[in-house]
Amino acid sequence: MTIITTIEDLRILAKKRVPRMFYDYADAGSWTESTYRANSEDLQKIKFRQRVAVNLENRSTRSTLIGEEVAMPVALAPTGLTGMQHADGEILAARAAEKFGVPFTLSTMSICSIEDVAAHTTKPFWFQLYVMRDRDFIHRLIERARAARCSALVLTLDLQVLGQRHKDIRNGMSAPPKLTIRNMLNLATKPRWCLGMLGTPRRQFGNIVGHATSVSDLSSLSSWTSQQFDPALSWADVEWIKQRWGGKLIIKGIMDPEDARLAVESGADALIVSNHGGRQLDGAQSSIGALPAIVDAVGKGIEVHMDGGIRSGQDVIRALALGAKGVYIGRPFLYGLGAMGEAGVTKCLEIIRNELDLTMAFCGLRDVRDVDRNILLPGSF
Ligand code: FNR
């Protein structure tokens, strides 16, 4: 039996169990993948100050994100095609998050629909929206999210155009996979995945089906994206969406202090410092590198969250120490899902919480809400 103690263990198991094109889809960054790598590497450069002889009884990892109680300040990031890592992937991940007590964010580009996820969960989840040219369609998605009791809208602004990921092109990525000889040979080595998929009817893009004419492979998905996603998106659109939604709005994809200020002016309740996990602008700064200047610019008036490269509880603490109120994980939960379904997402969250709790203790703290720059070694960040 495989013993799982780290996120890396989950990644290795997922690689064995998930068809290559979907594993690569999750694992890829754009172009040279330099920003993807920098997200993790820059986190590792940040060192802690170890403290001793401090009372470490009764520790707490609990916090709040946009006013919602969370078991730890970590949320599941919106990820497209999650239902291709494992059958019913979005439902399983949402259920694991709900039981654990952290937010789940459903992507516009999910396989399971907003209604599918709502029908299989009891607590509100968050819905991520892309800005599309067809404003009626946006309006309908907002109404569907409202009807499903979503408690926040995460508006992603960094995908006016789609980043190019070489692996997806080489693999001829499509959902579901086309039955070429190469794919069939690969699928034959993934019996668990195939059996799971046979047992579920949900293999379509649940939120856009009906609206999309054809998104059966990557070329049609990228041409659909370039037809539908609005390259002329402006801050006025963000205000329009905020008005239509009326609830909590989290703006995702901010890497620049000036954009952070504009996000605040357009009515955001929180923003996410994110380079889309290194999948969009290759050559952009790492998210952790961008975080401090954005916190300095707007951190007093708004919650600043971040994502990109978080692979452990230590990384969560590093981001909190530099001013993030919370972080999101993308690939780590996808690896858990691909490796072991719902139990794998729970395992991922348990690993991170355990590491987070111990790291905070080694730094001499009992409450995660007390984490600040004082726990970091000067000169290492
Ligand atoms: C993403 N991301 C993403 N973001 C978003 O707003 N909408 C989406 O549909 C997607 N889709 C998506 C698919 C996959 C496979 C990945 C890996 C990522 C970006 C995601 O929300 C988040 O910003 C990154 O995943 C964070 O980086 P890590 O944690 O994966 O390193």
TrEMBL record:
Presence of keyword Cell membrane: no
Pfam families cross-referenced by the UniProt entry: FMN_dh (PF01070)
Domain of life, source organism: Bacteria
Positions of the FMN hydroxy acid dehydrogenase domain: 1-381
InterPro entries: Aldolase_TIM, Alpha-hydoxy_acid_DH_FMN, FMN-dep_DH, FMN_HAD, FMN_hydac_DH_AS
Family: Belongs to the FMN-dependent alpha-hydroxy acid dehydrogenase family.
Protein name: Alpha-hydroxy-acid oxidizing protein
The species this protein was found in: Massilia agilis
